[in-house]
Design goal:
This protein is an alpha/beta fold. The protein is 42% helix and 18% strand.
Length: 306
């Protein structure tokens, strides 16, 4: 069986479905293939603990923190497809072993006041820290929204404007973007509870002792500015809303469809062969999980599937 598409997308996680949503809305014929029995990928949830069959688990992402600023919720009309969110305030809280706590409120000044209950100096430092984090968000968000190979003028303008406006913070921004999360936390703050709060948040983006992971502290700026956006019904509700949206716009989703090969012709990916033997041909293939896995799947297209 051979079908021809404008794009074959490997993976029905949020990245794959976002690509499918924009392409299908542009009039392209798109198919998304997913090896699992449901959509979602890292934005999926389920009853995964045999000993607690009634307990819903979200194993990876837990909120729509960055999706909120991307425009994807509005562009794909996800609220019309069932997505509803709430913003708890505080969004997070750190509980220290000695019984003290620090709450991360939507208002960063209120958060600073909460830190000051434990350590007045750290409370003042948090206000300065947030000045740097706001600058990182102003610069980082345009970069995240840009197409790396072809950044548009509007995005470049925002990036340049933000960089010029925050030039006085250049050294601090560079130090944080290169440093480890635990190093930066210890340089900025003194009390173990404050340091633990920062490291706990940064750990959601990776090991706190990896170089460059301190850039994850932009999460604080995003939380204060946009809120977390907890999907009602777990993060699976977000994935389900995306699936509903993209199928309405014409994209196909094939579940239980693991990819056995990504077919290469003349140096370009031109389709996939599924484990059950089906071949899906496309003008392009978009692979959304780690590059190593997909490079391992690439093979020259065989003549009997041309």
């Amino acid at each position: 069986m051979t079908d021809l598409y404008d794009a074959v997308i490997v993976g029905a996680g949020h990245n794959g479905m976002a690509a499918a949503g924009y392409l299908s809305r542009a009039g392209k014929k798109v198919v998304v293939v997913e090896r699992m029995a449901k959509v979602g990928g890292m934005t999926s949830s389920g009853y995964m603990i045999p000993e607690a069959p009634d307990y819903m688990v979200t194993p990876c992402a837990v909120e729509l923190l960055f999706a909120r600023g991307s425009g994807i919720i509005e562009d794909l009309e996800l609220t019309r497809h069932g997505l509803t969110t709430i913003d708890p305030d505080p969004s997070y809280a750190y509980l220290h072993p000695d019984g003290q706590s620090i709450a991360l409120f939507r208002d960063y000044k209120r958060t600073a006041d909460d830190i000051a209950r434990i350590h007045p100096g750290d409370g003042k430092q948090y206000l300065k820290f947030m000045e740097v984090m706001d600058a990182m968000m102003d610069i980082g968000f345009p970069i995240m929204m840009a197409e790396p190979g072809r950044p548009d003028f509007k995005t470049l303008s925002k990036l340049i404007s933000s960089a010029v406006r925050n030039v006085k913070l250049k050294d601090q921004l560079i130090a944080i973007s290169k440093g480890t999360a635990d190093q930066v936390a210890c340089e900025w703050f003194e009390h173990p509870a404050t340091i633990a709060l920062l490291n706990g948040i940064a750990a959601g983006a990776g090991p706190v002792d990896d170089d460059g992971n301190a850039a994850a502290y932009m999460i604080f700026a995003v939380t204060h500015r946009l809120g977390t956006g907890k999907p009602v019904g777990s993060l699976q509700a977000f994935a389900n809303a995306m699936a509903s949206s993209i199928t309405e716009s014409g994209a196909e989703i094939l579940l239980n469809a693991p990819v056995a090969e990504i077919l290469i012709e003349d140096g370009a990916a031109k389709g996939v062969r599924l484990s059950d033997g089906r071949v899906l041909r496309g003008k392009t293939v978009i692979a959304t999980s780690d590059p190593g896995r997909h490079f391992a799947l690439t093979t020259p297209a065989r003549s009997n599937v041309a």
